[in-house]
């Protein structure tokens, strides 16, 4: 397989929603704790890092900060940028137009499942050349995977071939999960189900999904919370 093994790992409501106010309710605390415990276990044993979309990365890590691009001379070419000193554990950011403002080349977070992860930006050719200069200035690697929209298969092939990444956790949100589901590259699904039903406007596990089949590999119950691990048929 010329791409990393992909495990979609998410907390969901009973009705399969993954974002919304329900996540901050007391009923979700235990599910969230189990989710992070499993995240750390995956990263110790299998995964080389995790993938999130722009919205999830912004809400979890960058907080909406963005650099002053007028300070940078634009990089004109659209070649991949991969510093020599990369190693270990990766935070792969699907950021098509380059809208995330990182202050460091690695995630700063107290949780060992995320802290010190090397950031990788996955971009399209729509990105501002000054953003590329900014990424180079703080040694954040980036790869191109598409002209206007990210081509998931190209991105995964590059992550495998250029950085030797063999397994990644796909951790949303709904839009980027849908990208992966529609092109059939999700190998496992790890769901921690909280005992709550979400609001109608909350987002589903996969946005604009298509029909695909999985089989149940493992299931565990933690009081009112259930963890289910599915593998592709």
Describe how the helices and strands are arranged.
Blueprint: E1 5-12, E2 17-19, H1 29-45, E3 49-53, H2 54-62, E4 90-94, E5 118-123, H3 129-137, E6 142-144, H4 152-163, E7 167-170, H5 174-182, E8 188-193, E9 203-204, E10 214-222, E11 225-232
Parallel strand pairs: 1-7, 1-8, 3-4, 3-7, 4-5, 5-6
Antiparallel strand pairs: 2-9, 8-11, 10-11
Shape: globular
Structural class, by secondary structure, is: alpha/beta
- Beta percentage is 25-35%
- What is the mean predicted local confidence, pLDDT? 95
Element order: H for helix, E for strand: EEHEHEEHEHEHEEEE
Strand sequence of the main sheet, in spatial order?
A: 6-5-4-3-7-1-8-11-10
Figure out the total of helices: 5
* Beta-strand segment tally: 11
Overall radius of gyration? 18 Å
Percent helix: 10-25%
Q: Sheet with the most strands? A: 9 strands, mixed
Please give the oligomerization state of what you see. Answer: single chain
**Model regions low in confidence, pLDDT < 50 over at least 5 residues:** none
What does this protein structure show overall?
The chain has 233 residues and is of the alpha/beta class. 24% of the residues lie in helices and 25% in strands. It is built from 5 helices and 11 strands. The chain has helices at residues 29-45, 54-62, 129-137, 152-163, 174-182, and strands at residues 5-12, 17-19, 49-53, 90-94, 118-123, 142-144, 167-170, 188-193, 203-204, 214-222, 225-232. A 9-stranded mixed sheet has the order 6-5-4-3-7-1-8-11-10, with helices on both faces. The protein has a two-stranded antiparallel ribbon with strand order 2-9. Helix 2 (54-62) links the parallel strand 3 (49-53) and strand 4 (90-94). It is globular. It starts with a strand and ends with a strand.
């Amino acid at each position: 397989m010329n791409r990393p093994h992909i495990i979609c790992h998410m907390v969901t409501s009973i009705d399969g929603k993954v974002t919304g106010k329900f996540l901050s309710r007391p009923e979700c605390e235990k599910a969230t704790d189990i989710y992070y415990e499993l995240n750390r276990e995956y990263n110790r044993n299998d995964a080389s890092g995790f993938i999130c979309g722009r919205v999830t990365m912004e809400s979890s890590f960058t907080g909406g900060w963005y650099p002053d691009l007028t300070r940078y001379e634009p990089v004109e070419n659209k070649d991949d940028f991969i510093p020599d000193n990369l190693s270990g554990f990766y935070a792969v950011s699907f950021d098509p137009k380059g809208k995330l403002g990182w202050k460091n080349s690695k995630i700063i977070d107290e949780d060992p499942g995320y802290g010190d992860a090397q950031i990788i930006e996955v971009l399209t050719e729509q990105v501002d050349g000054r953003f590329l200069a900014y990424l180079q200035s703080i040694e954040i690697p980036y790869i191109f995977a598409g002209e206007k929209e990210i081509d998931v298969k190209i991105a995964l092939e590059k992550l495998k071939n250029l950085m030797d990444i063999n397994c990644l956790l796909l951790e949303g949100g709904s839009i980027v999960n849908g990208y992966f589901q529609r092109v059939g590259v999700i190998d496992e699904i790890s769901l921690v189900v909280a005992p709550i039903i979400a609001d109608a406007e909350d987002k589903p596990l996969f946005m604009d999904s298509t029909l695909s089949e999985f089989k149940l590999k493992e299931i565990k119950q933690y009081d009112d919370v259930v963890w289910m691990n599915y593998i592709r048929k």
